[in-house]
Amino acid sequence: MCQHIGHAMQKRSTTIRSALEKYNEAAAKLTPPRKLLDWDDVMNYTYLSDNVHDKTWAKPAVREAMSELFKLIQAEEEIHRLNMEIKRLITYMKEEEEYVSLVATSVQETNPLLAYQIRRYRDERCRYNVTHHRRVGLRRQSVHNHVEEGMVAEDNEDHEDDQEDNSDGDDQESELDDRAEAALAVANDNGL
């Protein structure tokens, strides 16, 4: 690997030097100016990259395992966010239906034709809302079925406030650390 990098650096040294000069020109024009690089810095970065490949986390299988772990963690966060959004959607649909019914009732005496149109609008929205309720219910049930393998899921009947609770941040961080250690242990056990 070192030889390949060395040969590539020799073949492309003029291109690399040209790119280095362009970088230094651009870095000097920034406010505040950025650190300028020289050829030795670039060579040092190459040397560092050669020494990193022996680390456990640098092995392709371990990187892939960690990538999958972080995707799972992101999926958990997305499920939590979607569950909050679902609650907001259901609340909005309920409140809209109540409000439109109230408006229709309030204008019934003065303008029955307008009240009729408002009720038609409400009925149409209610038909869509039924569909949304059904889809949301199915999706939430599907998510809960998939999540039971170790991810944390909210209960379908849970109607707590949507405020995020940061008090368990330390617990989440330690859980992430535990998962990362487990992933590295699996990778090491498999000789990766």
Describe the protein.
With 192 residues, the protein is mainly alpha-helical. It has 2 domains: 53 residues, no CATH class; 130 residues. Helices cover 76% and strands 0% of the residues. The chain has 6 helices and no strands. α4 packs antiparallel against α5 and α4 runs antiparallel to α6. The radius of gyration is 29 Å and the shape is elongated.
Give the total of domains: 2
Number of helical regions: 6
Shape: elongated
**Average pLDDT score:** 75
Radius of gyration: 29 Å
Return the string of H and E elements: HHHHHH
| Proportion of helical residues | over 70%
Describe the structure concisely for a colleague:
Residues 150-192 are annotated as: Disordered. This protein is mainly α and 192 residues long.
Record keyword descriptors for this entry.
single chain; 192 residues; mainly alpha; 6 helices; elongated
Question: How are the SSEs placed, and which strands pair?
Answer:
Elements: H1 2-11, H2 13-29, H3 39-52, H4 60-107, H5 112-147, H6 169-189
Helix pairs in contact: 4-5, 4-6
Region (Disordered): 150-192
Biased composition (Acidic residues): 151-178
